[in-house]
Amino acid sequence: MDIDVLRRAPLFASLDDQAFGALTEELTEVDLSRGSTLFHEGDPGDQLYFIISGKIKLGRTAPDGRESLVAIMGPGELFGEMALFDPSPRSTSATAVSETRLAGLKHENLKKVIERSPDVSAQLLQALARRLRRTNESLADLVFSDVPGRVAKALLDLADRFGRPATDGILVAHELTQEELAQLVGASRETVNKALAEFVQRGWIRLEARAVVILDLQRLKQRSR
Amino acid sequence: MDIDVLRRAPLFASLDDQAFGALTEELTEVDLSRGSTLFHEGDPGDQLYFIISGKIKLGRTAPDGRESLVAIMGPGELFGEMALFDPSPRSTSATAVSETRLAGLKHENLKKVIERSPDVSAQLLQALARRLRRTNESLADLVFSDVPGRVAKALLDLADRFGRPATDGILVAHELTQEELAQLVGASRETVNKALAEFVQRGWIRLEARAVVILDLQRLKQRSR
DNA sequence: TCAGGTACGTTAGGTCGCTCACACACGGGT
DNA sequence: ACCCGTGTGTGAGCGACCTAACGTACCTGA
Known about the structure:
The first copy, chain A, is of the alpha+beta class and 225 residues long. Helix content of chain A is 44%, strand content 25%. Chain A has helices at 4-8, 17-26, 82-85, 107-116, 119-144, 147-162, 178-185, 189-201, 217-224, and strands spanning 28-32, 37-39, 47-53, 56-61, 67-73, 78-79, 93-96, 100-106, 163-166, 169-172, 205-208, 211-214.
């Protein structure tokens, strides 16, 4: 397993090599292809996961089948930890957005790590606090901004996390379909498509297959407020 | 200071009497009257707070002045902890919804408590995980449900946390104005008013001054899905 | 006790974004 | 090479909710 990503993860930064070595013994590797689901909403859960490569979408399904995405998680990030501290069934489902490799860690093993090095729980607190902050932000956006604004914001967020400099802008290989992007910003696919078309029209972005190139970061930021 | 509420708080359940005694030495009492603000969005923050009595609304303000409430916190609950683990300015403002008494605890002192008894950080993790779960829930509701549905859900949530049995139903003395209730569910005051009027019409609730009596819990639950 | 602020109730009109509907473009499998 | 499924682009129509604008009922303090 490629443990480089994990070694660099802030969560384990405080571990010495020996403790880290012991940890890696406990990890289970999981590989997912696009569209396959790791767990469903309501499942019991006793593991948390690290993303080694690829992307995972965390989402909820309404009784009528509509979906809403809570977050897109990428390499180096972790998820599925909530079921551990607050022992309840999974509150979201987790599905691969692209070819994805994960490292799973059982609750009991995490506990062992925490006992050895309390810094880890400080890191976990920080990770959770950050997530809560982001979610509160999204909540406010949903109330304050219109769909184009939310789309702009989502693109900027994805750019921040997955963007790479390209010749004429920032390449954001988000791997999401417009349908998924729509579920992420809480809007219909059609409306999101129109918002994207408008941005293209204005020369702010360029569309590629499951990717976007941001050409005018400033204007996009302006629109996202 | 009335420390009964604190002694019963799960966060401190694991402390022995001596440790708890030491902790109370570090607490600062704060009293707020309705409408006065403890901190604003963007302020630096080095304290977390326990609610001894009363209620606090946590909210965000849009550039144009509109407000959105992230949560209503009541007796026994804590808030303002995010700024500690994830050292950034306050992400929300905190304002008293009613006459409120708080106990403030500085970051450094919390650290001391955690060092002595690591169970406290487990409790903190649980509290954060629960909050994150709730916020994700709200996020999904905002997308899936219409305004009446969200109002119903908010009433049920408030009933769960602040409700008391009354002769003909559950008395929920939420202390919120309809404007605040509207900000909590992400809608306009007018629309919330209409939803409430409709519920009254149907005999599901009865309105009182800054309070609601839930008469037909079943129907209200039905409507909230 | 009166004045003025604050909260509540209700209406009318406009609009953003949803649903529905369809056409096209692409890509992978037989 | 050809489907056929999946994803993308676009238009028409409609409806939930917002804004704007009032009148009324309180409560509070001078």
